[in-house]
Description:
By secondary structure, the protein is α/β, with parallel strands linked by helices. The chain has a single domain (2-278), classed as Rossmann fold (3-Layer(aba) Sandwich). It contains 12 helices and 8 strands. It has helices at 2-18, 59-65, 90-104, 116-127, 153-156, 160-167, 174-179, 186-203, 212-215, 236-245, 261-264, 266-278, and strands at 22-28, 31-38, 43-47, 69-73, 109-114, 132-138, 223-228, 250-254. Strands 1-2-4-3-5-6-7-8 form an 8-stranded mixed beta sheet, sandwiched between helices. α4 (116-127) links the parallel β5 (109-114) and β6. α3 (90-104) packs across α4. The protein is globular. The mean pLDDT is 94.
Amino acid sequence: MLNILKKLHYGARVLLSRGGGQPETVEIASRPTVITHGGEGEPFVYLHSALGESMLWLPFHQAFARKFKVYSPLHPGFGRSGGFDQISDIEDMAFHYIDMLDALGLEQVCLGGVSLGGWIAAEIAVRWPERVRKLWIADAPGLWVEGASLGDLFRLMQDREELRKMLFHDPHSAMATMVIKDHVDESTMLNAYQAMTVLARMIWTRPYDPKLASRLRRIACPTLLLWGEHDRLVPPAFGEAYQKHIPGAELKLIKDCGHLPMFEKELEFVEAITRFCAG
């Protein structure tokens, strides 16, 4: 009963948040890109994980929009964002997003992302450090870490219970069972297929960028690394590796949290990033 009430409460928050973000489709180098934006203030770009959470304007987006002008684009290959045929690797994703900043007239932004989105944010920051005022990276792959390995997301996609165990510290929580449902509809199946297609192209043969570690020294802005203390997909050792290579980076572990802090520990996630970017 408690989980049902928590789901109803979050569902109500989602409905209340939806009016805060306005989606539009922008041509980015001939790629139609869906960008949802909302709020006022300093430009803040959120790059989503392979879960595709930016298909909706969610409560954590709305929380950021109370302080910033939030831009939440959908990666090529997700939802109605096109041009995935032009994307071969993570570098192409980085160039896509610098093209987006140019198209939107954003000279400098607070930039960050979760998981795949965090990796893309790092690739942008090493190439165009002058465009990033503050950088935050949460639970992101992208590096080779000796002695640590990524969880096998592809193997678990059809096993919803095991997938929840991989992504959440508490796989039985209301949030875990709401994000990773036991019974999926056609729309959810399509979203999952899109996510796996993008991930397969990005990481199937090599789930890291062999050049990224040596380039991270180029990041010239303050950097916050946020990691779920119990992340089983991208363990905290990856956060420690990013901290080792990024000058002055701060690593913050979120207790009782797995791979998706924007859902499992929304308050801590939003507060830490807001305080960092607004400071």
